[in-house]
Amino acid sequence: MSAIRQSAERALLVAVEFAAQRRPLTRTITLARDAALASAGGVRAGEASEGEANAAEDRPAPSSAALDTSAAIEEFRELVISGGAEIAGEVVQRRQKADPATLLGSGKVEELVGIAASTQADVILFDHDLTPTQLRNLENALPVRVVDRTQLILDIFARHARTREGQLQVELAQLEYMLPRLTGKGASMSQLGGGIGTRGPGETQLETDRRRIQRRVLSLKQDLEGVRRIRTQQRQRRESVPVPAVALVGYTNAGKSTLFNKITNAGVLESARMFATLDPKLKAIQLPSRRKVLLSDTVGFIRNLPHTLITSFRATLEEVQKAEVLVHVQDCASPMRAEHKAEVEKVLGELGVMEKPRIEVLNKIDLLPESERAIYTSPGYENSGAVAVSAKLGLGISSLLERIDAALVDDPVIEQRFEIPQSEGGILAALGAGALIREREFVGNSVAMTVAGPASLLGRYGRYRIN
Fold first, then answer.
1. Binning pLDDT at 50, 70 and 90, where does residue 43 land?
2. Judging by DSSP bridges, how do beta strands 325-331 and 245-250 pair with one another?
């Protein structure tokens, strides 16, 4: 069910911008980067009509809408490369609204036939979700396979799924996507008529395929429910020992895995390819207060994330739902940072976790100009609530850990004074390993100490506490 075959295929990219969807780009970059983008100005050849080309000199370049479209196309290119295809060409069309039959309109479809032939494309990839009708009409009209955005993302997920759970989740999402798009092709799969005795073999085969897929979907849901029960049991065992959970969330390719590795030394896969992390990773870390937390690295989000993926990956996304604190990692070097942030928050809202404590992390400050980096790392900016880091260089990691420490409220850090007999070596060792010793002095056969640590740890030794 792979949308892109294993060998590198030549892909023709098709992006469609509708007038009703154009929106101002939120200003998230400084004047330095604005100037750099403006210097690239203009509209690429093949994207503008003749009238637009004549008027190009009379308007500022690029506009907010053009920058928005350009960033979306660049993201689509990254998706295609992550899918293992070679880009043979690009077509960008601007329309007032979608054509219900083909999305593009019959004239543009005829143009695509010629472009596909001239570029020797093996597949045409649409940066848009196609309805079953549009997909069927385009497949009938175009000489090569047609793949839409959701199918491409599902294919990338299938490539990166490593665990049994991830593979089940991807297969379920693929089948649920495929089910309403089953169509018969060719004379042997056609429906000959509407009366008794007039149905061709295609109707029977189509219904057989549909029932087989429905049975497989049911089986996958049952398997995933079993995985969810096991995960719930594992989580309950973890929760029996009070160790808070912290989840890294963010847009795909924001640097979550690099940050996870820098904090945990876990050695998980780091890649500039989109959705390199699919299966969640968990590892215990120790915060500056000496208390331990479980840090999880989760799958990245993306604009127009297919709803079937959110549904199918429910078990994986439960790590986000059960986390006490969310660390929202953002690529501060991206001109689309505000839009990416909005897309992540949209998914977090669908998961019902927007009320959780959330720490904003601005990653990749090493990619910024020196003057801009100084703004992000100034004390005034840190007081605004965000933490600027470079996961690649290890900058700002200590500040982030301190911020996580402060955000955990279920097991707060408290300070108490104890007097513990020296014979209780196990207790002294436990406090030394799990808390900070502020003061310590020996009084006879006892040790008097002031300790700062998690309330759950200090509460175990209340009998030695000095009021």
1. very low
2. parallel
Place of tokens 């992000």: 376
**C-alpha distance from residue 432 to each of 444, 449, 460 (Å):** 20, 11, 14
For residues 275 and 395, membership in a common domain is answered with yes
Rounded to whole angstroms, how far apart are CA atoms 134 and 99? 9
d(CA 240, CA 238): 5
Residues 42 and 384 sit within 8 Å (Cβ to Cβ): no
DSSP string for residues in 240-298 = HS---EEEEEEBTTSSHHHHHHHHH-------SSTT---S-EEEEEE-TTS-EEEEEE-
- Could you tell me if 298 and 427 lie in one domain? no
385, two tokens: 């609530």
- The band of 38, judged by pLDDT with boundaries at 50, 70 and 90, is very low
Same domain, 324 and 451: no
Q: Are residues 104 and 207 in the same domain?
A: no
Domain count, the chain: 4
pLDDT in tens, 72-129: 888 889 889 888 889 999 999 988 889 999 999 999 999 999 999 999 999 999 999 8
- For β-strands 413-421 and 446-454, DSSP reports them as antiparallel
Residue 447 belongs to domain spanning: 413-466
Among 208, 241, 274, the domain-final residue is: 241
